[in-house]
């Protein structure tokens, strides 16, 4: 049924892609969890002879190696600029396998101090025609201690002993924790997980935890970041912001990032803006998108997220940027990099396009480097170079 060459691509194309062409059918969250359980089994048993063979095939299909894709950012070696965005592997169940899908890094989480079940189901919806998703998950995860145990179980080396498996961890506030105690909540998770954490993403922008976005206020954010920076062996810090901030709010956060010597910004999280899809009906609930809670991700977010990256880069090029939101092709990844992103992350686009999206993006970037006669991807960052066919 499947050709040996491109076996996993063919499996995805024949078994998963037809499901993704419809809003209804297999529940989106169930499909995600089922996929993650298979990946977790592979990650946990990667030394089994059969699993070793599977991992070799994954490497052959999805890994692209080219020294021109390598960057050292904030003291971290990234073998390539394409990462898995936070939200897919919340509990680090498959943390040991993302490099085998070709990712240069993976962001685990969002993790919170306390385990929490998240918001009521259904809470994840496909918008198949638009290659988008609506989610109101609510930081469902098993807590920081469970994530620590998962790393131990998979035998993941501490960051100082790890090569080519860069792991960022995305930290959020527990739902039961008040804003006045948010700093302590973040600190507890960070203290436990810093040994495994190449960089920390401070998530103050999810729309699905009540009150969380108030932490984007410069005064509250300054308090949080100052305390985090005091931690022993504090990793490089990135603040993840919402796409719904005004440019003035973004500029205030950028000034704070500069003043407090924070490493960078992840832009952006999901959007409360319906981005022209207000009248789009969610078939499972019968409600319009404008009537539903939750954040919008995927292709509709692409333009807005790109504009924000460009705006931040114009404010101060010393702020390291990770671009996320609507990246679903080599062209959109290249555009985000040339707008100012040193790294990019994919999630919704990866689901719709399949695992071949990672090598497609990397090979596309390499072709653009050749066409523009660039010796390293760093030369493309913020260059405003156009995609050449």
Automatic annotation (TrEMBL):
Q: Which domain of life is it from?
A: Bacteria
Q: What class of enzyme is it?
A: oxidoreductase
Query: Pathway of this protein?
Result: Pyrimidine metabolism; UMP biosynthesis via de novo pathway; orotate from (S)-dihydroorotate (quinone route): step 1/1
Active site (record annotation): 206 (nucleophile)
Q: What is its EC number?
A: 1.3.5.2
UniProt key word Nuclease = no
The Dihydroorotate dehydrogenase catalytic domain, residue ranges: 69-369
Question: Its catalytic activity?
Answer: (S)-dihydroorotate + a quinone = orotate + a quinol
Q: Which GO terms describe its cellular component?
A: cytoplasm; plasma membrane
CDD domains, A to Z = DHOD_2_like
HAMAP family referenced in this protein's UniProt entry, alphabetically = DHO_dh_type2
Q: What does the subunit comment say?
A: Monomer.
> Which family is this protein grouped under?
Belongs to the dihydroorotate dehydrogenase family. Type 2 subfamily.
Name the UniProt record assigns to this protein: Dihydroorotate dehydrogenase (quinone)
């Amino acid at each position: 049924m499947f050709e040996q060459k491109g076996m996993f691509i063919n499996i995805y194309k024949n078994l998963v892609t037809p499901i993704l062409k419809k809003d209804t059918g297999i529940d989106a969250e169930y499909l995600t969890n089922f996929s993650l359980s298979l990946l977790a089994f592979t990650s946990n048993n990667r030394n089994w002879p059969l699993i070793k063979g599977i991992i070799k095939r994954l490497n052959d299909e999805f890994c692209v190696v080219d020294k021109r894709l390598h960057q050292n950012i904030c003291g971290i070696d990234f073998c390539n600029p394409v990462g898995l965005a936070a939200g897919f592997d919340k509990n680090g169940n498959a943390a040991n396998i993302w490099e085998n899908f070709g990712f240069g890094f993976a962001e685990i989480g969002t993790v919170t101090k306390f385990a929490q079940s998240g918001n009521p189901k259904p809470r994840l919806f496909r918008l198949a025609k638009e290659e988008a998703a609506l989610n109101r998950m609510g930081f469902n995860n098993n807590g920081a201690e469970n994530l620590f145990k998962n790393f131990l179980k998979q035998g993941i080396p501490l960051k100082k002993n790890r090569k080519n498996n860069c792991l960022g961890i995305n930290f959020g506030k527990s739902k039961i924790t008040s804003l006045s105690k948010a700093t302590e909540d973040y600190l507890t998770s960070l203290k436990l997980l810093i040994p495994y954490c190449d960089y920390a993403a401070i998530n103050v922008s999810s729309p699905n935890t009540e009150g969380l976005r108030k932490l984007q206020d410069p005064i509250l954010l300054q308090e949080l970041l100052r305390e985090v920076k005091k931690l022993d062996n504090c990793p490089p810090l990135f603040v993840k912001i919402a796409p719904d901030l005004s440019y003035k709010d973004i500029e205030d956060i950028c000034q704070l990032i500069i003043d407090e010597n924070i490493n960078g910004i992840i832009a952006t999280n999901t959007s409360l803006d319906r981005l022209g899809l207000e009248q789009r009906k969610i078939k499972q609930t019968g409600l319009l998108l404008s009537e539903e809670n939750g954040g919008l991700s995927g292709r509709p977010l692409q333009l807005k997220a790109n504009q924000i990256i460009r705006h931040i880069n114009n404010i101060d090029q010393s702020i390291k940027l990770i671009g996320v939101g609507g990246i679903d092709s080599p062209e959109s990844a290249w555009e985000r990099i040339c707008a100012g992103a040193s790294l990019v992350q994919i999630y919704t686009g990866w689901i719709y396009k399949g695992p071949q999206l990672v090598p497609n993006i990397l090979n596309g970037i390499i072709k653009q480097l050749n066409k523009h006669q660039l010796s390293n991807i760093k030369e493309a960052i913020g260059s405003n170079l156009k995609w050449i066919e």
